[in-house]
Amino acid sequence: MPSTIAQATTREDRAAWIAAAGGLKAAIAAGAFSKPVDLPLTEALVLGLMRQGVRKYLMILGHGSTELGETLRIYEEAGLIRGYQFRNEVEMAHAGTALRWIYDEPCAVVTSIGPGALQALAGSLAAASNGVGLYHIYGDETTYGEGYNMQQVPKPQQGLFAQMTSTIGESYTLHTPQALRDALRRGAATVFHPWKSGPFFLNLPLNTQPESCRIRIDALPTRPNWPAVNTTDDATLQAAADEIRSNAKIAIKAGGGSRSASAALTRFAETAGAAVVLSPGSTGVLPDAHLQNMHVGGSKGSISGNFAMENAELAIFIGSRAVCQSDCSGIGWPNARKVININPDPRDVQHYNNTIALCGDATVILERLTGLLKDTESVDKSDWLAQCAAQKADWVRFKAERFATPVIDDPMWRRPALTQPFVLHAADQFARKVGAVKLFDAGDVQANGFQIVEDNAPGETFTETGASYMGFAASGLIAGGLADEGRYGIAFTGDGSFMMNPQVLIDGVEHGVHGTILLLDNRRMAAISQLQNAQYQIDYRTNDGVAVDYLSMAASVSGVLALSGGDTAESLNDALTKAHAYPGLSLVYVPVYYGHDPLGGMGTYGSWNVGNWCAEVQEKYAQSEI
Asked: CATH assignment of 412-594?
């Protein structure tokens, strides 16, 4: 091995030298990279990403990424990075999203141009919609224009993949290897953005990947350290405090951006005398049993959450993007006359009319507001909180009635079947007992799930409501096998969502996942069937008559434990217990009820600008004050 990095002439020599030096950070600290070095673009890229903490690569290598693959092979053999092979690019994108979202481990998704990149690009929508930062690296067509490249977009136009990737998120094509520093600076600003992170797309032309570039490795940008932003002046903050003191009926809408401000939000809500309404992605920001926690509100919502939204006269939004279903397509606050919006984004903070905009970090602003409200007089909030508490008691009774009815005769199964509310509640209770992280897939399982879970802290549940991407939960379960300290996880999924990415059974075993896929089968897209019935009194093309033996499918993969959840509380609990005890990947299969019996679902409580409801919703929106 060469004595200095300058004497290293091959990738193998450089990787071995860096490893012997104690890693890249130690080598840079020792001054080894204080002068420019000549090395292939792909190697410089891998070293640059290492500076930002990216050491895990999820990959499906193709003809557009063999050069990058060779660099990754060499650096993995030296113990500096880790590569993971996948079988589907959508699944891979979801696993990378979950790795960053749940475990805060930045990573890179690698594939080639063509169908593979298009699938990864589609999967990146989950990261973009939920504000999760990670790198997507796609091999791209050559820069020489010598003729059509296989799998490129077959159109005589330059940079078509760059156009597509820049539509979903921030994008950079390394047309010139010397632009790497700029690319990584922009990448870091996107992947590690303090409130709107997302996927950053690096397009690597086939012919620039092996080109040599001269670059100072210690000058490549590191992960940025963002200070807590607070641009709200004292006068505006005081105006907000005055509004809170003078209003008797206050409801807080806690969006996904409130997850990191849980403790500050709780203190503020208690001091302000405000009811707290959750979004699907913010369960746990207040403990479930907290008297001021009204549960989820919105187009699905809950009795108590929607009551608070519909009757509040002052609405306080914290880290919320005002997604259509979350605020009932803009008409969820019919009695609100004033809005206080806490958000670091200067555009999102001004979404509503009559807004006092508190632009900045939620924790900082909430602590300042709480300080202004302490030991000062305000109108009596006790009657409002008593009304909300009564509605919450009704919601608790409503849920208990469904949990006490575990089985209903099912017309399709032609026998008694467990209900989704019962299964989801039982599995939620089990997950809390064993400390499992819960991942929810799109569809009816997800919609019932965020009404049912009884989280006491953020991070107990991850539900992909940003894009409602079918197949996310089971794919995301793989992140537990990739993480440095993975947690046991339960992926709650329906039959339709599971079949979007069934190769999880193989990759889950390959990557050592300890987790369970809880598959609820009603042989239909129940969320859409219910919507069709609610709007048009009949469902259409949202179910099928094809029976699938999911237990045999799962058992056919070596290393997967396949279990039946049966049709009783005892059989379900027994299956969940055995699945948890199994050291690998398991699948628990549960046929569930679908039908018109109200005890078989959790109901809907708000409005939504969709289907034949549009005219009524839009008329109400036209009259909305905020």
From this structure: 3.40.50.970
